[in-house]
Design a protein that fits this description.
This protein is mainly alpha-helical. Helix content is about 80%, strand content about 0%.
């Protein structure tokens, strides 16, 4: 986990990165992949290091972040597949929540594989929906952490899996889920409009 003194900068990165992903994820997808690869790599390595000196944690965060960023940028199609797998896992979990309990591991694995394969066949829409959903969530976590919310602060400091598991929202804060989906929908509409405008402009130039 990161030292408490670094929670605010991390929250700012989460909020800013989430904003970029939510509303411009398709246009700058490689940048978004690198940013979120850095965030994920930093969280993983600092969690593995555990309690250590500040310099050790910062070095682990930097190294893990750079490795994560390079892997995500270098593996563009793998990144698209991961987005599809993540969306599939999210959908399965949401569906299972309606009936109660957790989905079987086999169902999750099969769903993620199908989601990844499907994502590669419709890259544009998967990127738009995926970045809007992921970006809106990390933006909410970052903003709540900056506002002083205890659970969001724990998530921003890598002491809580909440930042990576949005289906377990803040206790008694049901509105967070509503805000998440509402913001994601706005991001999807905005990105679709932007991508269509860009496509029309490119077509007009070729005529």
């Amino acid at each position: 986990m990161l030292p408490a003194a670094y929670v605010t900068p991390v929250a700012v990165v989460l909020a800013a990165g989430g904003l970029l992903a939510c509303f411009a994820g398709y246009r700058v997808f490689r940048l978004v992949l690198g940013l979120f690869g850095f965030i994920l790599g930093s969280f993983v390595t600092t969690s593995m290091v555990g309690a250590a000196s500040v310099w050790t944690l910062m070095l682990a965060a930097l190294v893990g972040g750079l490795v994560g960023a390079m892997l995500m940028i270098g593996a563009y199609f793998i990144g698209v597949g991961l987005v599809g797998a993540l969306l599939a896992a999210l959908g399965i979990n949401l569906l299972w929540r309606v009936f109660g309990g957790e989905p079987p591991t086999l169902v999750l694995v099969v769903g993620c594989v199908l989601g990844a394969l499907g994502a590669l066949s419709i890259v544009r829409y998967v990127v738009i929906f995926g970045t809007a959903i992921i970006g809106s969530w990390t933006m909410i976590v970052g903003v709540l952490a900056l506002a002083g919310n205890a659970s969001a602060i724990r998530a921003a400091s890598a002491r809580d899996i909440w930042v990576f598991y949005p289906l377990d929202p803040l206790p008694s804060h049901w509105w967070v889920t509503g805000a998440w989906f509402g913001l994601a929908l706005v991001g999807v509409v905005f990105q679709l409009a932007q991508s269509k405008g860009k496509k029309k402009a490119a077509t007009a130039k070729t005529k």
